[in-house]
Design a protein that fits this description.
The chain is of the alpha+beta class and about 300 residues long. It is built from six helices and 18 strands. Bound molecules: flavin-adenine dinucleotide. Flavin-adenine dinucleotide binds near residues 67, 125, 136, 139 and 183.
């Protein structure tokens, strides 16, 4: 188990908490505890924290937990939550929107739309933060976040901030490769003005509510779409729509969404993931790969 070294001035770090229930921080509403949990008040406090602890302790970045399955045995790291406090944004130029990593995707979509930029409307239905979206290269309806990134603000393990051009990064389907992957914020460059950008957001949200379960405990798409296929369609063709294991079930509406009906453990969800993968593999010879990030310990750390 990691332990905060006493040589550091532990008490001076306001906002550092112990044994925090991570189920409240995952949209699947399950998972164990974080050994240490830090919700910085602002960017400077976060960088100070990383400067002291960044080299000695594993840090797990958390946005809104809309794409993470925390294992039941918990997370033996310092979980740093950015949503909430690190959520300011401003227009640096009339076509360049800067947002901090904890800003919600929905807020960014609306802010862009208020200036008549409709091209970020796809973000409106993605229930995460900008930081999570950058890490996952979040996308929908044919658009991906990294197509709009001009520059990112990153922090290294020594707590030093750098601004790096998007050209230093290699985005791929639901992921990103590049020099530093701890995002404090990003500048998004926009170019296409339309008169009804807010209306576009409304229609994006309406379309999602027809095709995907909303208002349920899910983490969005569990699996990436394999080349040439849709994961949801393969699962559906295995007759798994509605299939239930304990309190977790494959959604009746969209087979790539698994719903926690209230009491599912992370183990239950992992078991369903394994079962679905095995069925799809044996029926179609296709190996599904998780989009959702499964994080944490296999066994209790205390
Ligand atoms: C109902 C529903 C619908 C969804 N629809 C879509 C969709 O259409 N398209 C899509 O792409 N996704 C979708 N998702 C998945 C999810 O919302 C996105 O992946 C989102 O970008 C995750 O953001 P988050 O803040 O919740 O990240 P988290 O779940 O908190 O974290 C995800 C990953 O990002 C890392 N991370 C978080 N913040 C940072 C940071 N500042 N710097 C570095 N790494 C960081 C985490 O460590 C983790 O590895 C959906 C999820 C749900 C529940």
């Amino acid at each position: 188990m990691i332990a905060i070294n006493k040589k550091h001035d532990f008490c001076s770090i306001s906002g550092l908490q112990r044994n925090i229930d991570l189920s409240k921080h995952s949209s699947w509403r399950c998972g164990g505890k974080a050994n240490y949990f830090f919700q910085p008040e602002n960017k400077n406090k976060l960088c100070e924290f990383i400067k002291v602890y960044g080299r000695d302790y594993p840090i797990l970045w958390l946005g809104l937990g809309s794409n993470i399955l925390f294992r039941d045995a918990g997370v033996d790291s310092v979980v740093v939550r950015t949503a909430g406090n690190l959520s300011s944004f401003s227009w640096e130029r009339s076509d360049l929107l800067y947002a901090q990593c904890g800003t919600s995707c929905a807020k960014i979509a609306r802010e862009a739309a208020r200036s008549n930029f409709g091209e970020l409307a796809f973000l409106a239905g993605i229930p995460g933060t900008l930081g999570g979206a950058l890490k996952m290269n979040a996308g929908a309806i044919g658009s991906e976040i990294w197509s709009f990134v001009h520059k990112v603000e990153v922090v290294n393990v020594d707590g030093e901030i750098r601004h790096l051009s998007a050209s230093e990064y290699r985005p791929y389907y639901r992921g990103i490769a590049g020099p530093e992957l701890q995002f404090l914020g990003a500048w998004l460059r926009l170019s296409q003005k339309i008169p009804d950008a807010l209306e576009k957001i409304r229609s994006v949200l309406a379309a999602r509510s027809v095709s995907q379960p909303t208002g349920e405990f899910t983490c969005g798409s569990v699996f990436k779409n394999p080349i040439g296929h849709y994961a949801g369609e393969l699962i559906e063709r295995c007759d798994l729509k509605g299939f239930r294991l304990g309190d977790v079930a494959v959604s009746e509406k969209h087979a790539n969404f698994f719903i926690n009906h209230g009491e599912a453990s992370s183990r239950d969800i992992e078991s369903l993931i394994e079962l679905v993968k095995a069925k799809v593999r044996s029926r179609f010879g296709v190996k599904l790969e998780e989009e959702v990030q499964i994080l944490g310990e296999e066994k209790e750390y205390e």
